[in-house]
Every structure is written in structure tokens, then in C-alpha cells.
Amino acid sequence: MAFPFLSAIVLLPILAGVVLLFLPPKNHKLIYSFALAVALVTFLLSIVVYVGFDTNGPPFQFIEKYDWLPQLRISYHVGVDGIAAPLVLLTGVVIFTGVIISQRIDDRPREFFAFLFLLASGVFGVFVALDLFALFFFYEIAVFPMYLLIAIWGWKQSREYAAMKLTLYLFIGSVIALVGVLAMYFNSGLYTFDFLALQNANFSPEFQKLWFPFVFFGFAVLGGIFPFHNWSPVGHVAAPTAVSMFHAGVLMKLGAFAALRVGIMLMPEGAQFHMWWILLLTLVNVVYGAFIAMTQTDFKYMIGYSSVSHMGLVAMGLATLNHDGLVGASVQMVSHGVMTALFFAVVGMIYDQAHTRQIPELGGMMKIMPFAGIAFIIGGLVSMGMPGFSGFVAEFPIFMGVWADTPWIAIVAAISIAVTAAYILRAVGKVFFGELPAALEGHMHDIKISEKLALGILCVIMIVIGIFPSVVVPMVEHGVEAVLALVGGA
Amino acid sequence: MFGTITPDMILAILPEISLLVVLAIVFIVDLVLPETRRGILAVITAVGLAATFALTLLYANPGNSAELVWGGMLRHDMLAYVAKLLFIFASFITVLLSVKLDNVWLKGEYYLLLLTSTIGMTLMAASADLVMLFLAIETTSIPLYILAGFMTGDNKSTEAGFKYLLFGAMTTAVMLYGFSLLFGFAGSSNLYVMADAISAGAVPGPVLVGTLVLVLLGLGFKVAIVPMHFWAPDVYEGAPTPVTAFLSTASKAAGFMVLVRVMLASFPNILADWQLMLGILAAASMFIGNVVALTQKNIKRLLAYSGIAHAGYALLGVVAASELGVASVMYYLLVYVVTNMAAFGVVVIVARVTGSDEVEDFAGLQRRSPMLALVLLLAFLSLAGIPPLGGFIAKVLVFAAAVEAGFVWLAVLGVLASIIGLYYYLIVLKVVYLDQPKSEEPVPVERAHGVAILASVLLVLILGVIIAPAYEWAIAAAGSLF
User: Fold this and answer.
1) Which of B141, B178, B196, B362 could form a disulfide with B215 if both were Cys (CB 3.0 to 4.6 A apart)?
2) Would you say residue A435 has pLDDT above 70?
3) A175, A190, A214, best to mutate vs chain B, most B CBs in 10 Å
4) Does B193 touch chain A (CB under 8 A)?
């Protein structure tokens, strides 16, 4: 039998988390090195899966299946398609870069990395799960550690409130989706949680119309869909840097991904019935999120709301249910993941030294940390959807997909591009250029080599996707075709 | 009246015999030993319970057969088998947790009462006759009344014992009245003979519903569901903590075993009536338990209210009245017992050091003992229903059973209630992980306590990840009722 790559990816972090708890608590260097090594191995494994994915092969690859609870036909069934494989890689990248820049965590680092790895295992598990029970299992594993990570290591002013709000929102969402999945389990007549089997379950249109919103919104809460998004900026802001990166970069994708996987792919008729108004909600996400981001003076809040706006584009792409929209949404998940991880990393680096995130109190960072400045500008260009960067490869098809169906929504949504440009340019201008405020004089220094490495990796990915879309688009198309076959769209 | 005694009949009561032997040994040793050396009693009891567990596990498995033994008094089936193992395990952990507990652990009568109560529980799970059932319930309860009030120097404990006794006696009397009506109408006290008579229409519908209410009042008290829950928080708070652990787990589970058996065996005629009735009680328990738990400052009271809510969740499986339903109840109880044992274990250990069981005294426990904090984290997350812990699977199973039986509204209510639950579990974890401790001194852990919480918490993890073997048991236990 072939090496179980996916299981290795899913289980390695959680096992590492257990090992971490037994390392000597005072030896921070050992703890950090161990965490870094594990993150690196996970990253390499996810590269192997990405590179090994055959775009001419069957829809799902790297499949492994073992009985878990055979009496209820629950199995540990994993595999990746063209949509999941890039997300696995994304997770590998973000966990690796996130660990790199978490060197400064000095309060109980064992527990920090253990919870972070638990979270990572959960995220990987969701992306590769081909059994709905397993998907839930990992989904909740992914959500829960967030509470502790934010509550213990987060920003003192708002961490308790933010952690609780986030956890409750996401749990309400997930358990409501769970009830929907149980309904599917019993209604299918198949008594199975297996995704591939349920694809052929042919749920009645009435059933799909009734249950689709439960399942879709249950998950989409984590994707930050309006009006259930307001846990998200608060959570981003309160979280420590690596956790913000992971949260906005990867965790929010879980929501969109699961909404696609369980909601749209298993209840396509329900999706078609409800999608017009969901499209409207995502429009609010995109435009309103951008405007709110523009009004923020807190650097981190600005990025938090920009995430709401950009994740809105993902949901909007999904809501088109057509080829271009779905491809765009899938690429946007990756592009936004990398971009927002980079944003939060840079903000974290600045905040660590300046101890303020108020945009008006910052300035002149380009002279002090030029590498971070350039990285942020690259991220900004991605965010604005500039050609040559991954953002363009993602957003262009989304707008095409929306235009094909409802041009007026595309026109209104396009406002967000201009607004995004406005707030990104303003932030770049104010934070990185101009004079260094007197209060910060002497407190600031350049970032470490390791941090440059982390930012560098993220930048390279955005540029490579921008210049050579073929590294990701054919794979995504391969996955989207399978979705379209279910949805019956063009 | 029993005819010839067959090996099967002996095997059916093997756990009880073994427990009785342990009890006799403890009794004699207690008489012989001087007061200072009575620490050995805990060892004897623990070893005896472990041996009983092993004996039961190896020899008392009825397999797929289910037969009435001892003149129809007991039923030797998987439900009883699994339940007995569960009670013996709970009793074992309780003894470990009692070690070094002042005013308790050097007294022989403590262990005698605990063992007697355990025997009562094992009989409760196997009773197939109203008379046997009543005797078993009383054998379980009377020692528990005394145990709750065991710390005679402590007013709270005395109050707990007294309160428990009064409420218990009253509800038992009401239940006994229900039993007598059933017997009178059906003409037999054997549950299964009675069931046939009832199916044949021996009892008029309205009377049957009335009887059901009386019986439910008694059993509802045992499992502490709303509105028969008032005693629980006070009694839990006042009783010695290991006794609280025992009360909230084994005693509750025993009540559920009887509830499941009696409901399914004797009242299939009015299935729809009692499903609705129990459904409403389940919803009320889940909500009232969780909402009131939000305001609790004492961790034992908090766990009492959380226990009321959990009885509500488990009740969902009974409401479903299906094979999956009963299996889910069994799985739920397995998980609930080991989880609560772990949680109470930590409470015992911390209370020994801080001398208090207020939530605020758990502040910064993580800095004082990372492992204790981790155990509490795992136990509470399991109670909240988060994977990869047993509580997650247990909740999914009961919700699944409710959905399968067409009680989607109950499943949705359960889901909403569990969100409220999550909130207060997180609040406690926040105190443990985030707040500043009053002192940084490490919390010492007795070896016996360490073994108890480790065994419990490992089972919580195992039940959450390796689901199939325990589920096999649960489904076999359920199968023995249908």
C-alpha cells in the first residue's frame, strides 16, 4: 500500500502536540525547535500531496479508508480533490510560517504550540475528509483550540470577549449544520456518512430546499458570511499573530469549503433554489466589508474587515454555481489565505515593537523594516486584484461568473475594488512612508531573518500564482468540474 | 421456587456475589484493625472492586442470550452486564478518590455503605420484577442517603443527607404506589409478564398514563431530571466529593437503566404518550439545567446543574425508543460516568489543597498543575461535546437517535441547549487557564487520586476516538431490550 500521506498530514500535528506537553516547560528553545521541525515536515508533506495530484486522474486522490464505527457506517475516509489539495498546501504554508514568527511567544509556549497543532490537525482533517462524520469531528477540533489560543495568548483588552463570541458563533453554526447532516443520514435511505455515497443519494427537492440553508449557513458562519460575520474581525484582532494568520488565512476557508462540500455538492437543487438571495448577502459582505475596513483606524481591524470583504468574494463565487465563479472562489480561498496571513504577520511584527496599531500613530516603517514593507505592498496589490498577482487570478473569474448571471451584482461588487485600493493605499502611505513618529524613535528595529523568510515564502506564492496561474488553476478546474457535474450548471 | 440452580444463574449474579465477599472482608478487617491502620481498608475495597470488575468482564457476559433467572426476579442480559461493569468501575474510582479524605477514609462503614449501594445498583440494572426492582432501588438509595450525610461534623453534609433522604423517601413511596397499581391491574409483578398483560389491554389507558406518571416521578428523582431535580444541587454540594461523584454518575446511570427497561418493557402501549412526556421533560432538563448552571459559583453545584442537563440529553435516547436510541443512552452513560469521574477527581484534589470548591479557587490552576488543568480541560470539553472526546460521540448519537425517531425539534433544542452548556464550561476553563492564581504553589496529587483521574480521562479519550468496541456493547445492550 502507498504511504498514507493524508493521514500523516492529519495526525502528525496532533501527535506532536501530545509530545510537546511532555517537553520540559522551561526549555523554550527546544520547544520552539521541535514545533518548527514538525511544521516543516507537515509543510513538506503537503507539498508532496500538491505536486503528486494528477489533474488527469480521478476526482478524488490519495484516498484512504478504514472502518471507524462500522455499525453506523462511519469510516475514516480521506482523499483530496482539485479544490482541497491547494487548501492542504495553504494550511501547510500557513502553519509553517506561523510557527516561524511565533518565536516571541514566551508565556507557556508548550501549550501554545500544542493547541496550535491541534487546530492544524483539525483543519487538515476537514479538508481531506470524505466522511461527513469525520468532517464534523475535525471541524470541531479545528474550532475549539481557538478559544484557548485567543483567551490565553491574545490581546489583553478584548481577548476574553472575542474568544467567547467566536467560539459560540462557530459552535452554533456547526451544530446546526450537524442536525442537517443527521437529517441527510437518515433521509438518504443509505444510512451512511460517506461523502461519495451521499453524492448519489438523490435527496428529494423538498428535502433539499428545507435543509440546504441549515447546512450551508451552519458552515458559512465560519466563512464570515453576512450577517453572521461579526465574530470575525473581533476574533482576528484579539488573537496573537500566528493565530490571526491561521484564523483568517486558513480557518475561515474551512467554512466556505465545508459549505461547498456538504451544502452545495450534496444538495445541489437546494443550492440552486436558495442561491439568489445568498448572492445578495455576499454582495453585502463584499461592499459593506470594504467600506467598514476603510473607516478603521486600527490597523488590525482594517485587515479583519478586509477579510470579511474578501471572504465575501469567495462566497459570491460559490453562489454563482457556474464554472468561472467556482474556479475563482477556489483560487481566492488560496490567494486570500496567503495574503491575509502575510498582512497579519506584518501587523504583528509592527505591533510587537511599536505597541500600537493605530494607523495615525504609525509611520516611516519602510526605513526600519523595508522587507516587511515591501511584503505588505505585495499583499496590498494582491488585495486590490492587480494583474500579475494571485488576487487577479482569483477575482477576475469571480466577477466573470457573477456577470454571466446577474451583471448588476458584478457592477455593484466592483465598487469594493476601488474601496480596497483606497484603504490599502492609505495604510501603505501612512504606515510605511512618511516620518517615523517621535514616540517610536529608537524603539524600532528591522525584523529577523527568520521572519523575512516567512514573509518571503508567502510573497513568492502570491507572485507565482499571479504570473503562472497554471500552477493552480488546472487543478482547481479539475475539482470544479466534479462540482458542476453535480450542480448541473455550465 | 427457583427450581434447580444452574451455572447460568450463578454467573448472572457473579458480580453481586463477588461484591458481597469484598464487603464481608472489609467488615471483618474493620473489626480487627486498630483505628490508625485502617488505611488498608481502601486498598482492600479497591482491589476487591478491581477483581470483581475483572471477574464480571470475563465470566458474566451473557452473549446474545437474554434469560430470566432466579424465578424471574432478574434478567441476565447485555444491558445488565454493561451496566454492572459501569457501576463497579464507578465504585472503584470513588474509592480511589476517597483516599486521604479526612473524616471519611479511615471508617470501615464508609466502604461498607459504598459496596452495599453498588450491589443495589447492579441489581437495579438486572431487575425484571417490580418487587426485586423496589428492593434494589432501596438497597442503592439508603446507603447513599447515609453517605451524603457522612461528614457529621459538617452542617452542609448533614443537611445533604437529610434532604436526600426526605425527597428520596417521598418519591420512592409515590413510585411504589405506581408499582402497586401496575401489579394490581396486570396481575403479575414480573415486568415481562406484566408487559404482555398490558399489551393485551389489561390496564385501561387513562390509568396506565396515571401510573406512568407515578413511576416516572420516582425514576425521575433518581436521574435528577426537571422537575424532580431540586434536591440535586444541595445534596451534591453537601456530600463528600467522592460521594457526589458516585451519586452523579453511578446512581444516575442506574436510574437510567431502570428507566429504559421499564419504559420499553412495560409501556409500549402508550408509546406516543410517554415519548411526548419524556420529550418535554428532556427539553426542560436541558434548558433549565444549563441556564441555572450559568449562575453557579460553586463547582459542585455547577456540575449538579450540568448533570441535570446531561440527564436531559440522555433522555433523548430514551424518547427515541429505538435500538439506536437505547444504544445512544448506554454510550452516553458510559461517557458521562468516566467524564464526571475525571472532573470530580480534579475537584477532590484541588479542594484538598484550597479547602474550598468554589470556582474562583480554581483560578490559575494551570500554572500550579498543568496536568490537573489538562484533565479538567478534557473532562469539561467532553461534557461540552467537543471531539476528540467521548462527549462528542455521545451527543451525536443521542441527537441522531432523536432525528431518526422524528424528534427533530428535540434535537434542535438539544443543540441550542448545549451551546449554553459550552459557555459555562468555557468560563470555568477560562478561570483555570487564564486567571491569576492566589498562590503559585504546585498542587500535590495523591497516587490513588492520580490513578483515578488518569484512568478516567484516558477512557474519555478512548471513548471519543476508538468508538466501535464500546458502541458494540451499547448496541448489544440495546438489542437485549427489543
Assistant:
1) B178
2) yes
3) A175
4) no
